[in-house]
Amino acid sequence: MKDKLILNLVHRPEMVPEYAEKIMGHGEKENLEKEPLLKESLDIFKLQQQIAHEHGLKTTIQMTYASLFNEEAVALAKAHHAEYGDEIALTLLGLPSTAFRNKYKTKDFCIWMFSYEDKKRIVDDVFSLFFEKFGFYPQSTGSYYMDADLINYIKEKYPSVICAIATCWEEGPKAYHATNNSWYTFMDGGPWNPWIPSKINTHVPAENESEDSGIVAIPHLSRDLNACFDGNGSNFGTHPQNVLRGMAYKDGQYPYLFNLIDQYRHLGKFNDGYAYNMMFVGPGWMNKMGRWEQPYTLLEQSYKDGIAYYGKLKKEGKLIDLTMSEFAHYYRANKTYKTPEVALWQDILYGSEKQYFWYLDPYLRTCVDLNQGGALIDLRPYVAKLYLPVGIGTPRIVNASYPFLIQANYRAGYFTHYAGEGTLKSTKVSYEGEEIDLALCLTKATFSKKGDERYLHLDPIEVVFKRLTITIATTITFKEATGEIRYARRIIKSSDPHAKVTFNDYMTGAFGTTEYPEEMYHIRLRVNDAEKSQEIKYHYANRELTIHNGISEVIIPDIETRITMKSVGEYETYVREGYAFSPMYTLGVMKDLKQGEEIETWLKLEKAA
To answer: Which pLDDT does position 24 carry in this prediction?
Structure first.
């Protein structure tokens, strides 16, 4: 399967499709069992299945709770399993129905938001009904998000489950604001491609067998790793109707959809030939009344065209379609716990040359922005292995996001409107009173790999001062499962080879899951060497400590994370406290360089003791 795109094509007979009862109701009193609604939903599911099978593609049929009460839906699943090899699975989406609401006395429908006791009751109810209808328990399940406690319970009680749709990628404040502050689901900070979730936190990949939750997780849709990070993730995924909702089409044509699929194929070049794509859509997205600004005819045609492209790739020997459980077996046979996921992602929507580089392993997830000179614009401390229960009865009823240390969209990044700093890891260069941040310099990158290290090689950046011009080469190294990121910046050319330029390699950080600052009183900033240690207890006082040839560090007890920064040779390292208007902290390393010299810095994430 190497060098072929692996496809998970997932359908669900959602008898009460999201939003559809309101779209069809025309002001009538809500009725989840209206015959036209049930018939239309089942007809659309049949059409989706028909389209897939016409192009020689297997599907995973994720039965909803409501569909388990429908004899025709159950019979269809059995027939398609027998004839086409489709997998019969069970989703924890599609809970709303008269039976469910009568039993649980609620309009809640997101499984991760229920109390833990209700989660268990609902799982047992739905899994028992599935067994009653099919005579076996499913091998795969899923939801928009599945918290660790939920996954652990399912795996313990129903060990047949080996695969699950476990999170949406980058569904947080951006998606919330795009729905007029009405979609109370926050789940930023997880992997964009399949992973084995830890028993502690679904977002965090398991580091070893003892942390292994027992399932392979896949994302809810394969997303555009540029457009989704910068904007609303619901508009940019390999779900044809998402592309229509994002207005990424013209005159009934949507080349962006096919470019997005091809971009995922291209990721095989960075991941030893492994490339993956997931397409998942419920009947509500092909509603006969239309959806968003599109008529039904365009919704149907886009789905046909998307499936046809996958079918074409399969006929050409460039794609293999697997059911979810088949994929779980493949993943475990071909991946190790510590194998990183890497994506050098091109802008394919707006016509720019912007690149992001994404990296994740069990220790961290991060994003490098080549449009900002190789700055880190997102950093998540997976190494902290944070247990963050979610749902009613916990402190995090709706917020399932994994905290960030750097998040340039929620905490400003390089540009700030008035004063202070935003979260970013970048480098400032200074000469004769002039200072230029490389975050203002556009570049591009190439990727290479050797052993357990992945390298990002940036195109050289030219920096022009009034009386000096230098060219800087940069290599960023990620050593798998160490929590380390190494930056090497070298002056490869200078208009004055003897001129000394000051390099200030820094990380400005914060922590949280939204735009709003957290209290930082517990933070400790330190500089250490072999002989002494100095400390600042964070109190918004804008203080600074410096030491020669030492280590700078910050300890953030709130998220059990320790960050250190160091270099080699002769250098100065410092820590700086923020203030109330700019509630950040900064670690940095400073060194004077001339032509042919370089500064190497190591940023390391660890779990705080």
So the answer is: 46
